[in-house]
Amino acid sequence: MTGAVAALMTTAAAAEMPDGPIEVIVGYSAGGGTDVMARTVANHLEEELGDSLSVVVKNMPGAGGQIGFTEVAQAQADGSTLGTFNLPAALALTLDRDASYDADSYTYLANFVQDPNTIVVPRDAGYESLDDLLDAAREAPGALPMALSSLGGNDHFSAILMQEAADVEFTMVPFKGASMARSALMGGHVAVGTMTLGQTVGFEENLKVLAVLDDERSEVAPDVPTAQELGYDVQMGSFRGLVAPADLPEDVRTSLGDAFAALSEDEALLTELREQGSPVNIVLGDDYRALAEEQAEIAARIWEETPWK
């Protein structure tokens, strides 16, 4: 009897979802880290929801992800449209330009990836530890150029937070993307950089990661200390998850919430993400919303104190 009741409840929950396909909007081009995450999760979500529902990914790149974030925020709130959400980037964008969404424009479903930032130097720079680097920065304030993928994102915020925690000053050097920042660092054109740990993987012969900006060591680089271990309370990185428009009907919200809760324990999905080089950190529902609000507060404070445009 219990099994029959459970089956009826599952059928009823599924019936509340839209009849047509569920579209996952990705605000970036195909092939990037966010797109790969979205397609991986979409495949497993389709299996979790059952054969009656298909999940398709649609890329809408442009304006640093803003086009995609806006599309999701303005979509009909019926469960037929989901979207990738990147923190802190998505909410930082609302500070330096006109935006048609804010933190309250979404139903927060699940964060899947947390790629922490690092403090990284050229392998032959001669810095053996984070304190070696910070001592050099203290001796010559502003003399060490720090490579960033851009202003107004997790790299920029990492640099600001590191400066504050260590009472040092770097000269920020923004590039057009992480690959250009990494190339400048490997070429010795800048002294130090901050980029996500995932962006350093495969470049170990040329780069030395001095610290990971998280509260615990990463399984991707277990031998690298955290900044917190070294006495600097700095945490920042790139979060990638999925949201829906705000004000979903309660039954749809429950159905999606249950599906993502199940995916958070899907070992096949988690293994697949890890094999792609994605540091997994599952944050669900209200906790995900709290994470977004926390990241928004950090971005707003930095914008108020040191606006980047």
UniProtKB/TrEMBL annotation:
User: One Pfam family, short name please?
Assistant: TctC
Tree of life domain:
Bacteria
Family of this protein: Belongs to the UPF0065 (bug) family.
Q: Which PANTHER family match?
A: BLR1237 PROTEIN (PTHR42928:SF5), TRICARBOXYLATE-BINDING PROTEIN (PTHR42928)
Protein name, as recorded = Uncharacterized protein
* Organism of derivation: Roseivivax marinus
Lineage, highest ranks first: Bacteria, Pseudomonadati, Pseudomonadota, Alphaproteobacteria, Rhodobacterales
